[in-house]
Amino acid sequence: MPELPEVETIVRDLRPHLVGRTIQGAKLSHDDVLRGVTKRTLVTSLAGARVIGMTRRAKHAVIELELSASRPSRLSRPSRLIIQPGMTGSLTIHEEPLTPGEAKYAVLRAPLDDGRELVYRDVRRLGTILLLDEKGWAAYDAALGPEPLDPGLTPARFAAIMASSKQAIKKVLMDQRKIVGVGNIYANEALFAAGIDPSKPSSRLTLHQSTLLLSHVRRILEAAIASQGTTFRDYRTGTGEKGNFQLELFVYGREGEKCRVCGTRLAHTHEIDARITVFCHRCQQ
Ligand SMILES: [Zn+2]
User: Fold this and answer.
1) Which of 105, 134, 161, 201 has its CA 20 to 30 A from that of 28?
2) Own/partner long-range contacts of 101-107 (Cβ < 8 Å, ≥24 apart)
3) Residues having C-beta closer than 5 Å to ion ligand 1
């Protein structure tokens, strides 16, 4: 899945090209990617809409729109187009007409007033598209936990969130309602770096441990953003490039191999949230 760093990269790439532009119209090839909005509402709302901002929230690209006053829409203004790229999804701006190969998997095509085109491609259509008004956005946003890279998330606030659950720390770390954007690879690696047993009840972390954990989560996510996200098969940055981040993996994918720090054989389990957890008995307490 495109994780927080990949979506952040896409948003940073596209923002300067999109903000201030007006969407001329929209074509949607399949409506199975839509959530809570009909094809008709999406297409009519996007036509004539001006892009007034672009941000990231969790693993979603959020395009803020001022809808055209001359077109009827059931949505109040302004509203937000939210795209969560799936494993095979990419969101890019094209200067040239799409090649037949590019057009084949284009799910959403939105020509802009400068002649370019915003395109969401998704081979297997695992991504989702939403269109929310202010009220819908407020509810959506409120259901998500804080952003790990937000300076407003202080170590004390992070510690309070972690202390609020007795579930395994790894499960809590990956719970989007508690904190957003930490996927399985990053959770495994951050817990190893912080020396924390992934199955430890979240509420039993010391302030020192949770502070260390937050700093490693941030270090790993920031390194991934600086290298424009991870390279995996269908991922493209907003400019259509492959990412070039190769995280040095200490535990993820290394079950049965020797710990790089102490040489102990790494253990693994599927008992926490059914996802693979790899850890070192000796380094993680
Ligand atoms: Zn070890």
Assistant:
1) 134
2) 106/29, 107/28, 107/29, 107/30, 107/33
3) 259, 261-262, 264, 280, 282-283
User: Ligand 1 center to residue 282 CA distance, Å?
Assistant: 5
Query: Tokens 């094809």 map to which residue?
Result: 39
> How far apart are the C-alpha atoms of 225 and 164, rounded to whole Å?
29
Task: Give the residue numbers marked as catalytic.
Answer: 2-3, 59, 275
Dist. CA 181 → ligand 1 center (Å) = 26
d(CA 280, CA 200): 13
Measured CA to CA, the distance from residue 52 to residue 134 in angstroms comes to: 14
For 13-31, the pLDDT digits (tens) are 999 999 999 999 999 999 9
- Regarding pTM above 0.90, the answer is no
Residue 23 contacts residue 110 (beta carbons within 8 Å)? yes
Could you tell me which of 158, 145, 184 has the C-alpha nearest to residue 57?
145
Q: How many CB atoms lie within 10 A of CB 208?
A: 11
Distance between CA atoms of residues 185 and 173, nearest Å: 12
pLDDT digits (tens, 9 = 90+) for 126-163: 999 999 999 999 999 999 999 999 999 999 999 999 99
Give the type of residue at 3.
E
